[in-house]
Amino acid sequence: MLAVILVFFIVREHWEHLVGRWIYLLLFLCPLMHLFGHGGHGNHSNKPEGSNG
Asked: Pick from 7, 5, 15: which is nearest to 32 by CA?
């Protein structure tokens, strides 16, 4: 939560600089969302989660 607040204030203070470079920010967010958005890949098996065998 602290990181979200920090990012909010940084964006608010530097909004004029960021408006012209929004496409680069979007491209930067894509790999970050891929890395942190999955929540882990697990073992990639085709077994249902509740099966033990």
From this structure: 7
Examine the pLDDT at 48 and tell me if it is beyond 70.
no
3-state secondary structure 18-47: HHCCHHHHHHHHHHHHHHHHCCCCCCCCCC
Answer for the pair 28, 35: CB distance below 8 angstroms, yes or no: no
CA distance 44 to 15: 41
Q: Cβ neighbours of residue 18 under 8 Å, at least 6 residues apart?
A: 11, 25
Instruction: State the pTM of this model.
Output: 0.36
